[in-house]
C-alpha cells in the first residue's frame, strides 16, 4: 500500500527530527542531486557527442541565456569541447528557487551538481532565499540571479536552452495558487513548455510540483508539468490525487529518516461520522488527511479466494439489476464482469428480452430472483424522474426493492436483510434514504455533480473534476455511502479512508467499461458480504481493489491499443491469477 500524507502530518514528523539535529535537508538535497545526475547520465549515454542533451533553443536565433547569465563565462555554450558518452559535465541546469526550505533543498542540490561539473544557474524568485543553501550554492561556484533583475522572458529562454529544470519554488509550506512573482514565472514557463512539447527540458519537481494543492490534489493556478517528482520523507496526498497527480510525472520517494508511521491519520477522526438525513448538509471538509493507493499484494490479501470447502453459495451470489430493452448491453457487461471475477453465482433481474441476451452471452447466469449476497444496481437504467414516472421495463421498481434491503428499510426482505450493493448510473437517482458504508456509489464526475446538486450543493462537473477527493468525501458524508468516483485516476472516499487508483490506460475511457467495473465490485462485495456489513472500512478497500483489477484488466486487454469493454471483463481472470500467484 502506498500511503500519502497530509502537509500537517509531514510537519509533525519533521519537528522532532529537526529538533534532534537530523540533517533532513542535506539528505533531501543529496538525493535530489542524485536523481538529476542519474537522468543526465542516462541521456548523455544515449547520445554520441556527450553532454549537450537537449536540442537547445535555436528557433529564434537568440543567445537565449545571455541576459540571465550576464557577466558569466558560458561554460556550456555550443562549441565547447565534446565530452565522452555518458559524461554529465557541462549539462545545463536551471534552478527555480523559492523563499523557503523547498528552495533550500534546490540550492543545496544545485551545489552538488556544480561540484559534479554541471552548469547550474539559479533564479531566485523572491527577495528572500534560504541563506545556507544560497551560500553553499555560490561557494560551489553556482550562479544565482534574481528574478526581479532578469525578468521572466529571459528565464523562459534559459529554460528552453537547459537540459534540466528543477522546480523548487514552493513545497509543503505553500497554500493556494502560486502568488506573483512566482505565479507569473510559472505561467510563462508552463505556456512555453506546452508550446515546446518534446523540446522542453527534463523537469524535476522538488518535493511537489510547485502550486499544487498538497492535501487535496487541486490545481488552483499555473503549475509546471514535471517528468519526475522527487519527494522527501513521505508521499504527499496531492501527488496521488487528480488532477495534480497528472502533473507530477514519475514520483520518487526518498527516505530522509522519517519513521515508518509518524502521525495519526487526521482524517480518520470523527468528522465524517455524522448522522445526516437525505437533505442535511455535511460539515466543512477540511481536505486534510491521508490518501492510500492499493498495490497488487494488498488486493491479493483482500481477495475472497475459494477453498476446497466452498460451494457456489458460500462463494457469493451477485444479483444484477441492469439494462433495459433499449440499453441491453449494460446488462451483458455487468453480468460478464461479475462472472469473470469469480462469483459463485450471478442472478439477473430485468425484462425478459434482456435476460435472453444475457444468457446468450453468459449461459452461467441465472435469470431468476432468489437470495443474493450483494447487489449491482443501475447500469444501463435511465435516470428516475418522479414527475414522469419510470419508463424502464420495471427496472426502477426492482432497484427500489433491492435498495430497501441494502439500507435495511425492509428489515425482513425476502433477500434476507442488509447486504452490500454497487449503486451505479440510473440507481444513483433513486436514493431516498441515508445509506450505509457498504453501499458503494460509482458515479463519474457528471453523475456525482447531479447527486450533489440534489443535496443542495452548487457544483457542476468541472468543479468535481477540479477537486475530486473533496467532492467524493462530501458525497460520502452527505449520504453515508462509500463513494467511488470514476476517472482517469479514480478516487474512493469511505469511512476513515480515501483511496486513489491509477491503474487503467487512457483507452479505458470507453462506453461500457463502468458496467464491467460494477460487476467486478459486485462479485467482491458478494464474496465478503458478511464482513463488509460488519466492518465499515472494508467496502472502500474492496472498491479500491476492484478499481485496481479493472484497470489492470483494461491494460491487458488494451496491450497499448484500443479496448472494448467486454474484453476488459474477459481479461479479469488472468489479472486475478497473476495477483494471487504473485
Ligand atoms: N523542514 C525541513 O527540515 C525539511 C523541509 N524540506 C523541504 O521544505 C519544504 C517546506 O518548506 P517550507 O515550510 O519552508 O515552505 P516552502 O518552501 O514549501 O514554501 C514556503 C514559502 O513559500 C511562500 N508561499 C506560501 N504559499 C505561497 C504561494 N501560494 N505562492 C508563492 N509563495 C508562497 C511562503 O511565504 C514561504 O516563504 C518541503 O516541501 C521540502 O521541500 C526538506 O528539506 C526536508 C526537510
Ligand atoms: K516544488
From TrEMBL:
Lineage summary: Bacteria, Bacillati, Actinomycetota, Actinomycetes, Micrococcales
Domain YjeF N-terminal: 10-264
GO molecular function: ADP-dependent NAD(P)H-hydrate dehydratase activity; ATP binding; kinase activity; metal ion binding; NAD(P)HX epimerase activity
Cofactor(s) this protein requires: Mg(2+); K(+)
Function: Catalyzes the dehydration of the S-form of NAD(P)HX at the expense of ADP, which is converted to AMP. Together with NAD(P)HX epimerase, which catalyzes the epimerization of the S- and R-forms, the enzyme allows the repair of both epimers of NAD(P)HX, a damaged form of NAD(P)H that is a result of enzymatic or heat-dependent hydration.
Protein name per Swiss-Prot or TrEMBL: Bifunctional NAD(P)H-hydrate repair enzyme
Binding positions for K(+) per the UniProt entry: 102, 167, 210
Region named Disordered: 53-85
Name of the encoding gene: nnrD
Chain segments annotated as coiled-coil in the UniProt record: none
Transmembrane spans: none
Protein family (similarity comment): Belongs to the NnrD/CARKD family. In the N-terminal section; belongs to the NnrE/AIBP family.
Binding site for AMP: 486-490, 514
Domain YjeF C-terminal: 295-579
Recorded catalytic activity of this chain's protein: (6R)-NADHX = (6S)-NADHX; (6S)-NADHX + ADP = AMP + phosphate + NADH + H(+); (6S)-NADPHX + ADP = AMP + phosphate + NADPH + H(+); (6R)-NADPHX = (6S)-NADPHX
Amino acid at each position: 500500500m502506498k500511503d500519502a500524507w497530509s502537509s500537517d502530518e509531514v510537519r509533525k514528523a519533521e519537528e522532532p527530527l529537526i529538533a534532534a539535529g537530523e540533517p533532513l535537508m542535506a539528505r533531501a538535497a543529496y538525493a535530489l542531486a542524485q536523481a538529476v545526475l542519474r537522468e543526465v547520465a542516462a541521456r548523455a549515454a544515449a547520445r554520441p557527442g556527450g553532454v549537450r542533451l537537449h536540442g537547445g533553443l535555436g528557433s529564434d536565433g537568440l543567445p537565449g541565456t545571455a541576459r540571465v547569465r550576464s557577466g558569466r563565462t558560458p561554460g556550456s555554450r555550443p562549441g565547447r569541447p565534446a565530452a565522452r558518452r555518458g559524461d554529465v559535465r557541462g549539462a545545463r541546469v536551471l534552478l527555480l528557487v523559492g523563499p523557503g526550505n523547498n528552495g533550500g533543498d534546490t540550492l543545496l542540490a544545485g551545489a552538488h551538481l556544480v561540484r559534479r561539473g554541471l552548469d547550474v544557474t539559479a533564479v531566485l524568485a523572491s527577495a528572500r532565499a534560504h541563506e545556507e543553501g544560497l551560500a553553499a550554492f555560490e561557494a560551489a561556484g553556482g550562479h544565482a540571479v534574481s528574478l526581479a533583475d532578469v525578468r521572466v522572458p529571459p528565464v523562459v529562454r534559459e529554460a528552453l536552452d537547459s537540459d534540466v529544470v528543477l522546480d523548487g519554488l514552493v513545497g509543503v509550506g505553500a497554500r493556494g495558487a502560486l502568488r506573483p512573482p512566482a505565479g507569473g514565472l510559472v505561467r510563462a514557463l508552463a505556456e512555453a513548455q506546452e508550446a515546446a512539447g518534446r523540446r522542453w527540458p527534463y523537469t524535476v519537481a522538488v518535493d511537489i510540483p510547485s502550486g499544487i494543492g498538497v492535501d487535496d490534489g487541486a490545481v488552483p493556478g499555473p503549475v509546471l508539468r514535471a517528468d519526475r517528482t522527487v519527494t522527501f520523507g513521505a508521499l504527499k496526498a496531492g501527488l496521488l490525487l487528480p488532477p495534480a497527480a497528472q502533473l507530477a510525472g514519475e514520483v520518487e520517494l526518498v527516505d530522509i529518516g522519517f519513521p515508518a508511521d509518524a502521525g495519526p491519520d487526521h482524517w480518520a477522526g470523527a468528522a465524517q461520522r455524522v448522522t445526516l438525513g437525505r437533505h442535511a448538509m455535511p460539515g466543512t471538509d477540511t481536505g486534510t488527511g491521508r490518501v492510500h493507493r492499493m498495490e497488487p499484494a494488498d488486493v491479493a490479501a483482500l481477495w475472497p479466494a475459494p477453498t476446497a470447502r466452498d460451494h457456489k453459495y458460500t462463494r457469493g451470489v451477485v444479483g444484477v439489476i441492469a439494462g433495459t430493452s433499449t440499453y441491453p448491453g449494460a446488462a451483458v457487461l455487468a453480468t460478464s464482469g461479475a462472472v469473470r471475477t469469480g462469483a459463485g453465482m450471478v442472478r439477473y433481474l430485468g425484462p425478459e428480452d434482456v435476460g435472453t441476451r444475457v444468457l446468450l452471452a453468459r449461459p452461467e447466469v441465472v435469470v431468476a430472483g432468489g437470495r443474493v449476497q450483494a447487489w449491482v444496481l443501475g447500469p444501463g437504467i435511465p435516470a428516475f424522474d418522479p414527475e414522469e414516472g419510470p419508463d424502464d421495463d420495471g427496472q426502477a421498481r426492482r432497484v427500489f426493492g433491492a435498495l430497501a434491503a441494502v439500507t435495511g428499510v425492509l428489515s425482513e426482505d425476502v433477500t434476507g436483510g442488509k447486504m452490500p450493493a454497487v449503486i451505479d448510473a440510473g440507481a444513483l437517482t433513486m436514493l431516498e434514504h441515508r445509506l450505509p458504508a457498504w453501499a458503494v456509489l460509482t458515479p463519474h464526475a457528471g453523475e456525482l455533480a447531479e447527486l450533489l446538486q440534489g443535496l443542495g450543493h452548487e457544483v457542476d462537473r468541472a468543479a468535481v473534476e477540479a477537486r475530486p477527493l473533496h467532492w467524493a468525501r462530501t458525497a460520502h458524508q452527505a449520504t453515508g455511502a462509500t463513494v467511488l468516483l470514476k476517472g482517469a485516476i479514480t478516487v474512493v472516499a469511505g469511512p476513515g479512508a480515501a483511496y486513489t487508483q491509477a491503474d487503467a490506460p487512457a483507452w479505458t475511457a470507453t462506453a461500457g467499461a463502468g458496467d464491467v467495473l460494477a460487476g467486478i465490485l459486485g462479485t467482491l462485495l458478494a464474496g465478503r458480504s458478511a464482513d463488509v456489513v460488519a466492518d465499515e472500512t472494508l467496502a472502500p478497500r474492496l472498491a479500491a481493489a476492484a478499481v485496481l483489477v479493472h484497470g489492470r484488466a483494461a491494460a491487458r486487454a488494451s496491450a497499448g491499443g484500443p479496448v472494448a469493454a467486454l474484453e476488459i471483463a474477459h481479461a479479469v481472470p488472468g489479472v486475478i491469477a497473476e495477483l494471487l500467484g504473485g
